[in-house]
Amino acid sequence: MSEKTKKPQKLRARLPRGFVDREAADIRAVNEMTAKIREVYERYGFDPVETPLFEYTDALGKFLPDADRPNEGVFSLMDDDEQWMSLRYDLTAPLARHVAENFNEIQLPYRTYRAGYVFRNEKPGPGRFRQFMQFDADSVGAPGVQSDAEMCMMMADTMEALGIKRGDYVIRVNNRKVLDGVMEAIGVGGEENFNRRLTVLRAIDKLDKFGTEGVSLLLGEGRKDESGDFTKGAGLNADQIDKVLFFVGITDYAESAAHLAELVAGTEKGAEGVDELNTIRSLVVGAGYGPDRIKIDPSVVRGLEYYTGPVYEAELTFDVTNEKGEKVVFGSVGGGGRYDGLVSRFMGQPVPATGFSIGVSRLMTALKNLGKLGADEVLAPVLVTVMDGDVESMGRYQRFTQALRNEGIRAEMYQGNWKKFGNQLKYADRRGSPIAIIQGGDERAQGVVQIKDLIEGKRLSGEITDNAEWREARVAQDVVPEADLVAKVRKILEAQAEDRRRAKQADV
């Protein structure tokens, strides 16, 4: 007796953790947004470049392999030549490799932008994904801080091009050299204090979250949160804490610049950083970008790994409601700074560079909150229905469809089981099709088509309840010669667009 053949187990469809599928609305929203960003970058004289998703792992800088499999922070695999490759973690390290590899061919300063997905091999969580899109702009071979100032101005212009009005955003600027100078001034400079300095900088970064009191605790012995968990502090004394809090508490840079210069006096880097901040401030103000748009803010501490000078951050200042129903400031949607050492790793010579990165998904969420994205929904296609399946009829339906497409009208010929005509209208309804085109044998013999305005028909169906009245009214349906098909469809679409415009005005 033979054993019954086991049925193969059905494969379970499942999405990997930390990744998402993107639907049509989100894809169109991203395309709409990136087109506006691209227009600003092009206006500033930047050109596009594209690098691959994979780089050799050692090119990614701080993620150099220190184990058999270098998967700390990155997704890695070994090529057939036994070299480790990794999915890119950001768009900056691949650009540095590209510049170094093509240094003799490119024109410096090299002004370029790129948009693309980056990958983080980290634990996913709410709003935290392993794959997301960034949109970067960089200027390589530009040593002066005027290049950093221009980056900040371009970020401000980008925010406004996306419809974010002044007062709802600010570009905050600091300088890594000033941070280093303050650390040296309070006695935590040098390699021997690296970990302690990192604790101080992480505490500063929590200013928006914990306020001055919470940061003071983190700078001192430590802080206990609401759950009772204790975070060990940097162990600074009262005088050191006061100096740090003065530094990060500066709200009016013009008033505090002299005091800041005093704080970092005697530190070469600190003094240099203050001079650079003063220069940036003069340049942006001179170009018409006041502190309502670009603001010197010493609490910005982003990019501590490879930034060497000015750092900047685009922050949205309007309130949104979080998942707990609380009003919170939306916060950062991108940032960057000067990274003079990144290209130099490949070159053995100094190559100055500065740039910034926009978090596309986060910015898209912000624009949706403001009603600045996806407001104009893409119109579903006109549906050409199929009444007869012979070759001559099918050819005629396809000709109608192509005529509409050739005039710039979205259209599709029904490709399902045409024998059940009711299913075609259900399909049109689910698709949100504005119009259905119908031609049976009688219409074909007369050289005409029926055109159903499905939007108007749906509206009137709620007003007419009697079947006889419905048949008598023949609502939202017209019969026109085949030659007038495109003109009639266009006329109906224009009327529907006008109805949407009026409805939108009525809601305001």
The fraction of residues assigned to DSSP E strands is: 15-25%
Termini separation:
78 Å
Task: Give the low-confidence spans.
Answer: 63-69
What is the helix fraction of residues, given as a range?
A: 40-55%
- How large is the radius of gyration? 30 Å
Count of discrete alpha- or pi-helical segments spanning 4 or more residues: 17
Shape: elongated
Strand order of the largest sheet: 1-5-6-13-12-11-7-10
Secondary-structure class = alpha+beta
Number of strands: 18
Average of the residue pLDDT scores: 87
Biggest sheet features: 8 strands, mixed
Question: What would you say about this model in short?
Answer:
The protein is of the alpha+beta class.
